Amino acid sequence: MTTPSDPILLTPGPLTTSARTKEAMLRDWGSWDSDFNQITGRLREQILRIVHGEATHECVPLQGSGTFSVEAAIGTLVPRDGHVLVPINGAYCQRIAKICGYLNRRLSTYEYTESEQIRAADIDRLLKEDPSITHVALVHCETGTGVLNPLDEIAQVVARHGRGLIIDAMSSFGAIEIDARTTPFDALIAASGKCLEGVPGMGFVIARRTVLEQCAGNSHSLAMDLYDQWVYMRKTTQWRFTPPTHVVVALDTALQQYWEEGGLAARGGRYARNCQALIDGMAELGLNTFLDHAVQAPIIVTFHAPDDPNYDFKTFYQEVKRRGYIIYPGKLTQIETFRIGCIGHFGEAGIPGAVAAIREALTSMGVQLGRTATVA
Ligand SMILES: *Cc1c(COP(=O)(O)O)cnc(C)c1O
């Protein structure tokens, strides 16, 4: 199904999916059909199983891209008089803060530089100082740079203070271990088109059952009300409004392949090998990572752009694309960077192939290899 001219996406969603996952979409389904609703049911169970949340949590899927589910989670879980603390070390943390503004939820932020991890000790102090904070909203892997934040440490602190934790685990879910039995959280958000290697179009929120039960009437929006979606789905087995049927069956097929591969350990292991091969290969070209190795998640890597007058990202992008790979622009404002994803369905040859394409692309542009920018 992937034709020779289809490029490999080295982007953190949408990403490259398998032929089997794409083939699952060649059939139409009715939203009332019991076979389809069975698929929704088993999808929700499997998603819970990935975080061992069967006994304590509920999986509520929602139509739309990942951000829709983040917004729905904040709007449903945080009461209108709630107060959200958002520690910020990148673009996706910023997006959560923006959502709080749109939803009129009281917001406090705490800022880090984009190469730093969020620190549990800071959260501890901030929660001690301000008892009015009801929730902490944390991004697990900050996809804007690739930083991995110390989720478990922060979750323990938030729980000790008796506040709620909402985790944007969009780009880590399914590849980096999160265990609901030992890492306490009220809600965790992810989506179909990231590490589960489905196609984009639906997100899901894994919410603590006892918390979700208290969430009637919090949401500002009918379409984004996860409580209502949950109650309706429990009663009817159906989605409240038109489900993204093809996305659902593609995710179901992608999950079968996830278990066949060996689940989280195998998926995370493959991405870690991709990440290491990428960093090593790029280092040989003189291209260095923006982050220290110690804080780098094996999901997406930010590289300094070559410090060369012949370099410009748009040309570089097109030259790499002509050679079969789609890369990603940087998201930093101060420093010129680009990003390369380590996730998606491509074989062990994918990363070496991409590094070779990057070498050729830069050479064709007259960029001298072995020279890179230093941190500004
Ligand atoms: C991909 C992603 C999202 C969702 O982005 P969409 O563009 O709505 O799919 C949210 N948070 C993080 C950390 C992500 O990587």
UniProtKB/TrEMBL annotation:
InterPro entries in alphabetical order: Aminotrans_V_dom, NH2EtPonate_pyrv_transaminase, PyrdxlP-dep_Trfase, PyrdxlP-dep_Trfase_major, PyrdxlP-dep_Trfase_small, SP_NH2Trfase/AEP_transaminase
Chemical reaction(s) catalysed: (2-aminoethyl)phosphonate + pyruvate = phosphonoacetaldehyde + L-alanine
In this chain the Aminotransferase class V domain maps to 31-316
Q: Per UniProt, what is one GO molecular function of this protein? A: 2-aminoethylphosphonate-pyruvate transaminase activity
> Any idea which UniProt keywords this protein has?
Aminotransferase, Pyridoxal phosphate, Pyruvate, Transferase
Q: Give the sites modified to N6-(pyridoxal phosphate)lysine.
A: K194
The record ties this protein, via SUPFAM superfamilies, to: PLP-dependent transferases
- Known EC number(s)? 2.6.1.37
> Which cofactor is essential here?
pyridoxal 5'-phosphate
Pfam families documented for this protein: Aminotran_5 (PF00266)
Q: Does the keyword Transferase apply?
A: yes
Q: Which family does it belong to?
A: Belongs to the class-V pyridoxal-phosphate-dependent aminotransferase family. PhnW subfamily.
Per the entry, what this protein does is: Involved in phosphonate degradation.
Q: What is known about its subunit structure? A: Homodimer.
The record's annotation in PANTHER family points to: 2-AMINOETHYLPHOSPHONATE--PYRUVATE TRANSAMINASE (PTHR42778:SF1)
Q: Which HAMAP family match?
A: PhnW_aminotrans_5
This one is known as 2-aminoethylphosphonate--pyruvate transaminase
Instruction: State the species of origin.
Output: Ralstonia soli
